[in-house]
Design goal:
Layout (H helix, E strand, L loop, with lengths): L2 H28 L7 H23 L5 H44 L1
Helix pairs in contact: 1-3, 2-3
C-alpha cells in the first residue's frame, strides 16, 4: 500500500479520537449524560468491535494494513466505554442526591 493511504489511515485515527473528546468534556463539565441514549452508545461499541475483528483479519493474514483499522476500533471503544461509565456514574450520583434532598425535606417538614 502506498504510504499516502497509510498516513490517511492514521489521520483518521486521530480525527476519530478528536471527535469524541468534546462529548466526554461536556459530560464531565455538566455532570450529566442524560441526552446520550443507551442505543447510541451500544451501536458505537458494536461498530468498534466489528472494526477490531475486521482489522484482526488483516493482521492474521500478515497484512499490516490492518493496524490502523484495529486502532480505529480500539480507541473509540475505550472512549465510548468511558462515556458509558460516566453516564451511569452521573445517573447514580443524581439519584443519590435527589434521595438525600427528599430526606432533608422530610426532616424539615417534621
Amino acid at each position: 500500500m502506498h504510504i499516502t493511504f497509510t498516513i490517511f489511515g492514521y489521520l483518521s485515527i486521530v480525527m476519530g479520537l478528536i471527535t469524541q473528546l468534546p462529548q466526554i468534556i461536556t459530560v464531565i463539565k455538566y455532570r450529566s449524560a442524560k441526552n446520550i441514549s443507551y442505543p447510541y452508545i451500544s451501536f458505537i461499541l458494536i461498530d468498534c468491535i466489528f472494526y477490531i475483528i475486521y482489522g484482526t483479519g488483516f493482521l492474521l493474514s500478515n497484512n499490516y494494513d490492518g493496524i490502523p483499522i484495529v486502532i480505529t476500533g480500539i480507541i473509540p471503544f475505550i472512549i465510548t466505554s468511558i462515556l458509558l461509565f460516566l453516564k451511569i456514574l452521573f445517573k447514580i450520583l443524581k439519584r443519590n442526591e435527589t434521595s438525600k434532598n427528599l430526606e432533608l425535606e422530610n426532616k424539615i417538614e417534621e
